Amino acid sequence: MSEAVTRTVTTPPGLLASLDPLLREWLPRQRWFAGKGHPVTGFSLVAATELLPPTAKLGLYHLLVRTRQPLQPGGPEQPGDCYQLFIGVREALPPRLAPALIGHVTRGPLAGLTVYEALHDTRPAELLLEALRTQARIGGLRFERDPRQEIRSGLVPRLMTVEQSNSSVVYGDTFILKLLRRVLPGTNPDLELPLALAREGCPRVPPPTAWLVAEPGVAPGPPPTEPYVLGVLQPFVQGATDGWELALRELAKGEDFVAEARDLGRVTAEVHTALARALPTVTLGHAQLRTMVVGMTERLEAAAHAVPALRPYADGLRSAFTALDDLAAEGRVWTAQRVHGDLHLGQCLRSPAGEWSLIDFEGEPARPLAERRMPQPVVRDVAGMLRSFDYAARSVAPAQPDWAVRCRAAYCSGYAETAGRDPRTDPVLMRAYETDKAVYEVVYEARHRPQWLPVPLAAVHRLATTDLI
Ligand SMILES: Nc1ncnc2c1ncn2[C@@H]1O[C@H](COP(=O)(O)OP(=O)(O)O)[C@@H](O)[C@H]1O
Ligand SMILES: O=P(O)(O)O[C@H]1O[C@H](CO)[C@@H](O[C@H]2O[C@H](CO)[C@@H](O)[C@H](O)[C@H]2O)[C@H](O)[C@H]1O
């Protein structure tokens, strides 16, 4: 293993002020920007690290910046989210980097230079892998790795171009480095859960090879914050296809997906079993269920306020939550454990050998970390997958609802074979979770893909008018 490299660095004063007007315009256009709907009126610096001084042809800054976003035009500025940025600096951009342009700096320490999204560029991406390989410490950045896993140097990087909530760089088809964009201090389940599963020897989740954190105390003001998890390197599943693509392919051919769905049920149960071994489980009684039901009901009210198409169904949907509360009031209890938290077909990768892996344990990114890390009934993940089969079947014309019914049944059977417990034996909890997810999806689609809104609305109709799962 190489010696850890420790480097202290300083950044030029006035750096953020010189980037401010460019970032205000560029940041809200990024797919991973979470604060859509409210303009960015400024930034505060959480941390800045100079990874390459801008003396030669290329400079590189790692920034953690917090946005300021007033909720109403002219209203008081609200501290917004903290984002991780990789800012490249060059005198001029070569044509291959044109799509990465952020802008031309007109004032401050970088005046006259061009800044750009550095993850598109080979040298900055290589530098990150090298820092992980050598367990570097650069300013407040700590690059760590599992000493049992080898990282070869010289792997060629490429930035992934798929639509995603974060950014990922693939190195020579050997590793994938996911760099979180909206970052929070504290334990991040996207690192915590795969590490726990690796310790359990669960082969269904790529084990973290290395990770990047910002030291506590990078953010100003007492009390010192916990580290920010900024990125995770893991083995790249070569030639993998995700479950969503596979499902659509089978639908287009008029083929069933039941064998795959059953397999996915088994794999989900395998991961759940390993998580229950690795991390604490708890029992949820009426008080905890009541809190959960209140949360679901509040999300429904907020969603119905935001999306008028949901309003006619609100009473029917609410009944899914009150039924759960009634059951808990009768004394029914549930076991809760750590779960994936945002499971859908797109989070399942099938290797060319037919092996499934589950990825992206971040949970629903919009929810607070503490909430995402709470033990929950496994039915939550099952409901997410059931929604996904429904999505696939309704995203084709004409819709194939029977295809989804067969997949849903096969998935639950596969789950039951491995877990020894069929999730369908808990229909009230399942309906509540499916309803909560469908409500979330209605808001998600209304905001991001309005043409998809009929897909979750069809589920809303079913869930509001029947108690069939
Ligand atoms: N270990 C892996 N092997 C191969 N591809 C992967 C791996 N992890 C992620 N991917 C690809 O990267 C995409 C984004 O990963 P994901 O963890 O879901 O990021 P995000 O949270 O940004 O959506 C996935 O949809 C998948 O195509
Ligand atoms: O991929 P993310 O973790 O960022 O999740 C968000 O985007 C998903 C869409 O890309 C969205 O998922 C919904 O659409 C999927 C098909 O595109 C479908 O398989 C899922 O079941 C459905 O929920 C997800 O809700 C959102 O959080």
N-end to C-end Cα span: 53 Å
Question: Which architecture of the largest domain does the CATH hierarchy give at level 2?
Answer: Alpha-Beta Complex
Q: What is the averaged pLDDT score?
A: 93
State Rg: 23 Å
Percent of sequence in beta strands = 15-25%
Bound molecules: adenosine-5'-diphosphate, the ligand O=P(O)(O)O[C@H]1O[C@H](CO)[C@@H](O[C@H]2O[C@H](CO)[C@@H](O)[C@H](O)[C@H]2O)[C@H](O)[C@H]1O
CATH class category name of the largest domain: Alpha Beta
Q: How many independent structural domains?
A: 2
CATH 4th-level superfamily of the largest domain: Aminoglycoside phosphotransferase (APH), C-terminal lobe
**Helicity range:** 25-40%
Structural class: alpha+beta
Outline type: globular
Low-confidence segments:
none
Pathway: Glycan biosynthesis; glycogen biosynthesis
EC number: 2.7.1.175
Subunit structure: Monomer.
Domain Maltokinase N-terminal cap: 26-121
Write the layout of secondary structure elements.
Elements: E1 6-7, H1 15-26, E2 42-52, E3 58-68, E4 79-90, E5 101-104, E6 114-117, H2 122-133, E7 137-138, E8 141-145, E9 157-159, E10 167-171, E11 175-179, E12 182-183, H3 189-199, E13 210-214, E14 228-235, E15 241-242, H4 243-252, H5 258-278, E16 282-284, H6 286-306, H7 314-329, E17 334-336, E18 348-350, E19 356-358, H8 369-372, H9 379-394, H10 401-419, H11 427-448, H12 454-465
Parallel strand pairs: 1-7
Antiparallel strand pairs: 2-3, 3-4, 4-6, 4-12, 5-6, 7-8, 8-13, 9-10, 10-11, 11-14, 13-14, 15-18, 16-17, 18-19
Helix pairs in contact: 3-5, 4-9, 5-10, 6-7, 6-11, 7-11, 7-12, 9-10, 9-11, 11-12
Residues 165, 244, 342, 344-346, 360, 387-388, 391, 441, 444 line the site of ligand LMANGFYV.
